[in-house]
Amino acid sequence: MRNLGVVAGTAIVVSLTLAACSGGGSATPGATPTSGASSAPAAGETSESHNDADTMFAQMMIVHHEGAIEMADLAVEQAESEDVRSLAEGISAAQGPEIEQMNSWLSAWGEESTPMAGMDHGGMDMNGMSQEEAMADLEGLSGADFDRQFLELMVAHHEGAVEMAQTELQDGENPQALALAEQIVADQEAEIAEMQQMLSTL
């Protein structure tokens, strides 16, 4: 009989414990109401508010960044100077994630990821050369000649990006796009100064 009493008492304790756990589990969601979570923007959330300037900025800067990465990856392979190779690696590493970010904006905005035919390609040329011409020119060079031409072309390329970003700051409205434009101006002006310093030593 004593054993039965112990078993019964244990069963009651277990039942009460389970009830308490179950009650605690149901209370947890209530402590964090979903309405409160939805009112605060999640990290990385994209504002859908945008205008034509934001769309053009993202579309054109993606193409521009892709060109910079193409040139930078070639410099990683062909540059003679370790400083130039390091700079090129940094350009590629920084601009790849920015391309992904801008593609995600365009998707959230319901916009095409590529610029429309006939769109103004201001800021794309480098010292009078297109991306294809610049790559062909660089591929035919080596040693210090390659390093010098890469730096000169990338300075011009960065100046084009700064020009595009400044246009976005004047005409855009999307907060994320405006923040990236400010970052591009700051980062690429700093890299322009660094490349001009490198050129002065070649």
Describe the structure.
This protein is mostly helical and 202 residues long. 77% of the residues lie in helices and 0% in strands. It is built from seven helices and no strands. The chain has helices at 2-31, 34-39, 52-78, 82-109, 131-139, 143-171, 175-201. The chain is elongated.
What portion of residues belong to β-strands? Answer: under 5%
Share of helical residues = over 70%
Q: What is the rounded Rg?
A: 28 Å
Separation of the first and last Cα atoms: 98 Å
Poorly predicted ranges (pLDDT <50, ≥5 residues)? 1-42
Structural class: mainly alpha
Q: Quick one: how many beta strands? A: 0
Tertiary shape: elongated
Largest sheet properties: none
pLDDT average, as an integer?
A: 82
